[in-house]
Amino acid sequence: MQRNGRTLGSREIERKFLVKSLPEKLKRSRRYLIAQGYLASEPGGRHVRIRKKGKTASLTFKVGRGGAREEREIKLSAKQFAMLWPATTGRRLRKLRHELPWKNVLIEIDIYRGKHAGLVVAEVEFPDRATCRKFKPPSWFGREVTGEKRYSNVRLANE
Amino acid sequence: MQRNGRTLGSREIERKFLVKSLPEKLKRSRRYLIAQGYLASEPGGRHVRIRKKGKTASLTFKVGRGGAREEREIKLSAKQFAMLWPATTGRRLRKLRHELPWKNVLIEIDIYRGKHAGLVVAEVEFPDRATCRKFKPPSWFGREVTGEKRYSNVRLANE
Cα(B9)–Cα(B43) distance, rounded to whole angstroms? Predict the structure, then answer.
């Protein structure tokens, strides 16, 4: 992902957790409304997603599942996004994302809207495998769901 | 497709044929080198393709198979194309396309390169279903292969 200044077209290392309770400081964190939809997704997890995050549109290719996967992303103009968005009908989701700096990492907390309202998920992205392994989840995290298909965004969007 | 001035984000009506012999006038027709690759493709035919045709890059979403299907296409900048192209490794094909005006339609003749060298296919796109049904193939056309998975570009690229 581009937000940490990492190169686009990179390999992600991340873990995903359910969230039991929202921390107090979430009220002061940065947040964005995200609407995303899937143009095509293969059973093995390979897919093409388009997304509007705030006012920024992007198209992202991902391959692989679970803790580490390859990702390539481009920005889309408003016109490019508008042309492709209708193709995602029935394969969309909406969520409110909060970005919470926590120790040496950034936690992204996604509060789902629409048919998945009530689901809250935290994703933590790591610079390397060692940091990933050593990560101690905060007390308000629930069960780890890294790599569980049930909580993949592709699956949630298609349900 | 955009070349005939039709709106992008439209429904295609087309037929596809093998080509037995190349017509003499092909030498004077417009031609482009095409390189294309697939970001993701679903078993039902839904897919996302990126393509360089001459110097123009594009991303195309298609759904459905056979005689009529929905298609949405955007142009890509050289930079956008360069970011996504590596994701198509192992899912690419190259062909030389000739555009041949013939009676009231445009015939596209694709001469495949690389591992499919020897395969020559003609595609004819129609403005409506009536014109499509009435079409009489020229004598140098071979068997009709409209909707045959074996000759779909996705399949050829993945073989």
Answer: 22
The tokens describing B135, both together, are: 């079409």
Residue B148 backbone dihedrals phi, psi, to 5 degrees:
-75, 120
- % helix / strand / coil in chain A, to the nearest 5? 20, 45, 30
How far is the C-alpha of B76 from the C-alpha of B85, rounded, in Å?
11
CB contact under 8 A, B40 and A59: no
CA A84 to chain centre: 20
Interchain proximity A48–B70, CB inside 8 Å: no
Tell me the CA end-to-end span of chain B in Å, nearest whole number.
25
Tell me if A72 and B59 make a contact (CB, 8 A cut-off).
no
Nearest to B72 among A9, A59, A83 (CB): A83
Predicted model pTM = 0.86
pLDDT in tens, B92-121: 999 999 999 998 899 999 999 999 999 999
* CB contact residues (below 8 A), chain A span 10-69, against chain B: 39-42, 46-48, 59, 61, 63
Tell me the pLDDT tens digit for each residue of A89-147: 999 999 999 999 998 899 999 999 999 999 999 999 998 889 899 999 999 999 999 98
B37-89 pLDDT, tens per residue?
999 999 888 999 999 999 999 999 999 765 567 899 999 999 999 999 999 99
**Residues of A with a known catalytic role:** 38
Q: How many of the other CB atoms lie within 10 Å of CB of A147?
A: 16
Q: How many CA atoms lie within 13 A of A103 on its CB side?
A: 9
Name the closest residue on chain A to residue B75, using Cα atoms.
Answer: A80
Q: Which residues of B are catalytic?
A: 38
Is the C-alpha dihedral spanning B43, B45, B46, B52 positive or negative? positive
Whole-number Å distance between alpha carbons of B14 and B145: 11
- Residue contact A59–B59, C-beta within 8 A: yes
